[in-house]
Design brief:
Layout (H helix, E strand, L loop, with lengths): L8 H13 L6 H7 L4 H10 L2 E4 L4 E4 L5
Antiparallel strand pairs: 1-2
Length: 67
């Protein structure tokens, strides 16, 4: 189990996607709140780094990946 979410964008995406994929958390919101972070802050920060949230895939993906 992780003690904190990384600040590096690539590591953050990898960590969030892994925790959701492995079933540690049911939703992005529950994951964020468990680590004391706001989902909007994470989503906006990763959007600036070129990642978008896919609700259908339950993961962050590179912007433009699904287009």
């Amino acid at each position: 189990m992780m003690d904190y979410l990384p600040s590096d964008s690539a590591m953050l995406v990898s960590s969030i996607n892994m925790l959701l994929r492995d079933g540690e958390y049911d939703t992005l919101e529950s994951l964020c709140y468990a680590f004391g972070r706001e989902p909007e802050d994470i989503t906006n920060s990763l959007l600036e780094a070129g990642y978008v949230w896919s609700e259908a895939q339950r993961q962050f993906r590179p912007a433009g990946y699904d287009e």
